[in-house]
What we know:
The structure holds two protein chains of two kinds.
Chain A: H1 2-19, E1 28-30, H2 34-58, H3 60-63, H4 73-98, H5 106-113, H6 115-119, H7 135-159, H8 166-197, H9 201-206, E2 209-211, H10 212-218, H11 220-227, H12 231-244
Antiparallel strand pairs in A: 1-2
Chain B: E1 9-12, E2 30-35, H1 44-52, E3 79-87, E4 90-98, H2 107-111, E5 118-121, E6 126-128, H3 138-142, E7 149-151, E8 156-158, H4 164-167, H5 174-178, E9 184-188, H6 189-205, E10 213-215, E11 225-229, H7 252-279, H8 296-305
Parallel strand pairs in B: 2-11
Antiparallel strand pairs in B: 1-5, 2-9, 3-4, 5-6, 7-8, 10-11
Amino acid sequence: MSTTAKKFDESARGEFARFGTTRVHRGELLRHPVYTRFLHWSVAIFFVLSLLTGFAIYSPWLFHWIAPLFGGGPRTRALHPWFGLLFTIVFFFQFLNWMGPMAWREADRRWLRRLRHYATNEEPIEPEDVGFFNAGQKLYFWAIVVSAILFLITGFLMWFDNVIPRWVVAASYVIHDIAALVMLGGFIIHVYEGTAHQPGTFHSMIDGTVTESWAWTHHPGWFRTLTGRDAREAYEREKQRLDERPR
Amino acid sequence: MANPRTFQIQEISAHPGPIPGRGTRREEPVCKYIDVTTCIGCKACEVACVEWNDHPFRETTFNDTYQTMPTTEWNYYNLIKFVEDERDGNLMWLLRKDQCMHCEDPGCLRACPADGAIIKYENGIVDFQQENCIGCGYCISGCPFDIPKFNEQTNKVYKCTLCSDRVGQGLEPACIKACPTGCLRFGTKADMVQIAGLRAKQLREVSGFTSAGVYDPPSIGGTHVIYVLHDINAPQRYGLPANPIIPPSYTYWKWIAKPAGLLLGLLGIGAVFFHRVFYGPKLPQPEPLEVRTGPREEIDAGRKETP
C-alpha cells in the first residue's frame, strides 16, 4: 500500500514538474515542488470555502452576512458538504505527499518541550534536530488528518440525516463542530506563522524556494541534509561576515 | 405559515435577543384532540389538509397496506398510520393520525441554528418560517416524532402548521373540520385534556380497555396534540415514542459550548496579532541590521552618545 502510494506520489510530482517550473536562484534552496504547492493551495481553497459556508451554518445569527456570498442560506448549506468532500479528497493526496516528512520523531518531543522558547523568539536559530517540518507543523498536519476523517464520517451521517438515527446525527453535529474549532485554531496559527511571523515562508509556498539563511534558521536539520553544511556553523560564519563588513 | 403578527410569539429559534412584543397579550394554549379509538381511517383529514394547504397530489408506493404513504412528507403533513395489531387473536387496526405534535418543548426549535426559522407562539403552535430556513436539517434530528421533511426543490424544511392561518382567523384546523366521526376536536388545552380524560375513563370502565389513557408526554412538557389510546402503556404499538426526548446537545452545546468555542477560536486572531506586536517576526538569521531593545530612555540615551 505505502509503496504504491509512494510510487503514485512520485509520478504525480514528476508530471506536475513537466508543466510547472520552480526557479531556484543563487543562495536559495528548493523547498516545495510544484505538485506540493498545487496540493497545498487546492486544500487551502476548499478549506476556506468549507470554513466560510460552515460559519454560515454554525451560527447564522452571527454569520448571516456570509450566506449571500454563496447564494443564500439553503444554497450555502447545499454547497458545504461538496466543499468539504473536495477538501478531504485533495487533502488525501496532500497526505500521501507529506506522509514521510510529517512522521513523528523523538526530536519532536524535545521541540514541544521548548515550545515556550520557540514562541518567544528566544533562540536566533532552531536546534540542530529540527528537520523538514518542526513538531508544530507536524501536530497541525496530524490534527487535520484526524479532523478530516471525523469530518468525513460525521459529514456523511449528517448529509443523510433522513435515514440515520437522530441520536447519531445529533452526536455528529457536536463532533463535527469540535473538529472544526480545532481546525480553526490551528488554521489561525498556521496562517500567522506562514505570513506575518516568519517572513520568507509564504514565498516558499508560492515560488517554492527559500533563502539559505531561512533554511538554517528555521529547519537546520533539513539544511544539513540538503547542503551538507552545519546550520550553526553557517549561521556563525554569516554573522562574522556581517560583523566584519565595514559600516 | 401564519402572519407573525397573528399570534403572540413565545420563542424564536436561535434568537439571541429578547422576543419582540412578548408578554403584551394573553393567549390561551390551543390543542388538537385525537381519539384513536373512534377513527375509522376514512382519510378525510388527509384530503382536507392537502386541499387547505394547496399541496399538489404526490405519487406514492403500495406497501400492502391501506396507508396512503410510508411517512408524512414535505407536502403531506397529515397521514393516518394503519398499524396492524392484534387483540384476542383477531386483527386490530390501530389508526393513528400522524402529524406534528406541536410540543411544549419543541426539539426542532431547540435544534434549529437559523434565527427566526422556527417560531413557537404563546398558544403553543410551532410554526416554520421558510423564508428564514437555511435547510440545514437540524430540526429533522431534533424531532422525536420524525415530522419535519426536507424539500429537495426548495432546500427547505416543511411540516404541519396546525393551520395557524386558520386558527388565527378563529377557525379550527382543516383536518378537524373534515372529520366525520368526531374523533378529532380542537379547543383550549385545558378543555381537550379534560375531554380526553373523560373519554379514557369511559374506555376503561365501559368499553373494557382497562389500560386506556391519554398520550400527552411530560418528558417534552406535554404536546398541543393529544391522543386517546386504547393502551397507554404501549404507545410504541402506535408508532409513538414512550418517552420522547430531545438530545441535550441542542441546549448545552448550542447555547454554551458553541459560542464559547467560536469565541476562543476568534480570540486566536487577537492572540497572534498581539504575539506579532509583542515578540516581532522571526527573521532569517543573522539579521543584517543592529538591533536595540530596551526601555525608551536607554535607546534615546544611546542615540545621544553616538557621534
